[in-house]
Amino acid sequence: MDSVALSSPSPSPSTSTSSLKSRFLQKPSQNSKQLSSSVSFSSSSCSDFRSPTKAISMAAASNNGNSQRKIVTGPAGYVLEDVPHLSDYIPDLPTYPNPLQDNPAYSVVKQYFVHVDDTVPQKVVVHKDSPRGTHFRRAGPRQKVYFESDEVYACIVTCGGLCPGLNTVIREIVYSLYYMYGVKRVLGIDGGYRGFYAKNTIALTPKGVNDIHKRGGTVLGTSRGGHDTSKIVDSIQDRGINQVYIIGGDGTQKGASVIYEEVRRRGLKVVVAGIPKTIDNDIPVIDRSFGFDTAVEEAQRAINAAHVEAESSENCIGLVKLMGRYSGFIAMYATLASRDVDCCLIPESPFYLEGHGGLFEYIETRLKENGHMVIVIAEGAGQDLLAESIRSATQQDASGNKLLQDVGLWLSQKIKDHFAKEKKMPINLKYIDPTYMIRAVPSNASDNVYCTLLAQSCVHGAMAGYTGYTSGLVNGRQTYIPFYRIIEKQHHVVITDRMWARLLSSTNQPSFMNHKDVIEDKKEEELLTQIVNEDKKEEELPTKIPDISTEDNLVKKEIAA
Ligand SMILES: Nc1ncnc2c1ncn2[C@@H]1O[C@H](COP(=O)(O)OP(=O)(O)OP(=O)(O)O)[C@@H](O)[C@H]1O
Ligand SMILES: O=P(O)(O)OC[C@H]1O[C@](O)(CO)[C@@H](O)[C@@H]1O
Ligand SMILES: [Mg+2]
């Protein structure tokens, strides 16, 4: 391997080496000496490593990748949405006893290995006669593995936005590979998907990642855009990587899915495994995403501050903007947890400002009743209203996600204008935007445990030869979910579900359910104005027509001719 010590990184193509290095050397890591001994940078492919992928690729060249869904049905409406396995497209793969069987820590566990038939139901609430429904394969160690320890060359990449817990997942993948399976070669890919082909890599060791879970962000860096499937798979193949761990949100899992398809098309013995990361909790099927708990907890601090400010002045409104592009889970849970919030606005529940049942009316009532109030708004809420008042071109980020207007600033101004100009009622508004502060913190205790289980489950699955899956918690159990189920749709707050009703009853805010009526009324009003204006124009027309052919104009036309 073309490997360079940390103290003297390769000059080319290492534009990003210093940022990767600095992320690793950040506080609170006290052991820089230890790092320099365990971390090395690679500036080119590892051509001297054994490359099992290439050998298998040749062997499987005639075996056209067929990544059809694996659906197993059973009695009473049982359905297993199974995940792919290397043996689906590579025949006669050798298996080995799981090294965990000799691990003293696990020897005490009764039935440590997961039974081949263990599956987890997607729905736990069922009726006596209802079908058993969809199930996913239970995650965990298997009796047989499809890789020998020294054959494995794993890599880890993080993509998309930041989320508390990313470093914990990275650390636990490295630790699980090293200490459970004796895997010594783990590579960190710098700066998201494009890092596979355009950036440096870093060798990850238990020592090097020992205390990264205490820091926010990701030591590997992240990015949006830059997903070039063939370049990524070429890089995987050239380096001889055979386990790819991909941590990221819905976009990242879509990227992982196409990498898996390409790997399979090429017939490579390479596992592609995803770990779902989304602070917005917008990934379907899973109970919740890691970092979400931390985000909700951190949001409390902002809401508390807004409440303290609001309570301290007359007619004061504390307005807090939280993340949530298309899904308002953080806002909803932070509101439910806080009890200080009078109104929570999320993308899934349209609202309106003026008129009966609107936000302004509610604010006025609340201020008259209580003298202060707290509003929480998810960043994706009310974007339709913004689009009406700020006519701007739709912009996208590098991954193609729509860039949102700042609804917090917009709403602050709207409220101020309304009460100052229309109501002549002096109000005080304190706007707090803690969004990036919430995303950048290290994960809390509960998320750390969750990240550990996710990482361990993901590694067990890869060692057992499963591929094309995302590791996820379903009804409190770790499972392997096929990529297509993770990427087919986004998870949203359902405003006709009990949870939203609980929120409405805790805040006493309007449901904005007559939103449609108001919109209809507005449309009718607009239509009416249009008709009236057109009528007016028609009335004016006869007086204008002679204008065109005034003597003056005729003279001008003659001169021009
Ligand atoms: N449909 C797709 N096919 C292939 N790659 C994709 C696709 N969508 C997104 N990606 C890639 O996945 C990476 C991350 O995507 P994105 O920026 O949307 O973040 P994300 O994973 O959805 O996370 P989050 O939304 O939580 O920030 C980017 O590098 C992007 O190029
Ligand atoms: O500004 P960035 O980092 O591109 O991402 C912002 C977006 O990322 C998210 O945090 C999801 O990761 C959204 O809530 C937010 O809209
Ligand atoms: Mg996304």
Q: What would your notes on this structure say?
A:
With 561 residues, the protein is of the alpha/beta class. The chain folds into three domains: 71-138, no CATH class; 149-288 and 442-472 and 482-487, Rossmann fold (3-Layer(aba) Sandwich), CATH 3.40.50; 292-392 and 404-436 and 494-516, Phosphofructokinase domain (Rossmann fold, 3-Layer(aba) Sandwich), CATH 3.40.50. 41% of the residues lie in helices and 16% in strands. It contains 20 helices and 19 strands. The chain has helices spanning 17-25, 32-38, 52-59, 86-89, 104-107, 166-181, 195-198, 229-239, 250-265, 292-312, 329-338, 359-370, 383-389, 407-422, 435-439, 445-463, 483-487, 498-507, 515-548, 551-560; strands at 3-5, 40-42, 70-74, 78-82, 96-97, 119-121, 133-138, 144-145, 154-158, 186-189, 201-203, 243-248, 271-276, 316-322, 343-345, 372-378, 428-432, 469-474, 477-482. The strands form three sheets. Strands 1, 2, 3, 4, 6, 7, 9, 10, 11, 12, 13, 18 and 19 form a 13-stranded mixed β-sheet that branches. A hairpin with a 3-residue loop joins strand 3 (70-74) and strand 4. Helix 6 crosses helix 16 and helix 10 (292-312) packs across helix 11. The longest helix is centred in the last third of the chain and has 34 residues, at 515-548. It is elongated and about 85 Å long. The protein starts with a strand and ends with a helix. Residues 1-16, 28-66 and 541-561 have low confidence and may be disordered. The structure holds adenosine-5'-triphosphate, 6-O-phosphono-beta-D-fructofuranose (F6P) and magnesium ion (MG). Magnesium ion binds next to helix 9.
